[in-house]
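Example: DUF411 domain-containing protein.
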Amino acid sequence: MTNLSINRRSLLCGMGATGLALAVPALAAAQPLVQVFKDPNCGCCGAWIEIMADAGFEMEVHDAAYDSLKRLKAQSGVSEDMASCHTARVDGYIIEGHVPPTDVQRLLSERPDAVGLSVPGMPWGSPGMGPASERDAYSVFLIRIDGTTEIFTHYKAA
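Written out as structure tokens, the predicted fold is:
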């Protein structure tokens, strides 16, 4: 029979390494809370929420009347030409409409000086608006603090 001797330093280092190995994947996968404000009768908003949750975001949903949503958009710096069916807040940014989760992740990684992102209207094939395999071309816009916009990402038609 073999005697195995472990000193205190080896034991503590092993325990620390094990704890770190278990914690790192959880920290890497964690995404910030996304607060979504939407019409209670909108099904496409629910589909977008599911897609965001599947991408690892924690979702908090608030149903709101049309006038409240319109006011929230205006107060948040979303002009009428950038508006869509739902508005979300995440980590200091506004996400307007059917913005893909990868663009939200990129925004949070790059941290530009901006209001947030918008997919104006409800383009077919954007997340929550039908299959990506049939999508129409659409752009995700970065809304700057001064109200100007620029294309953040463009998606070609499928």
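The chain has one domain: 28-155.
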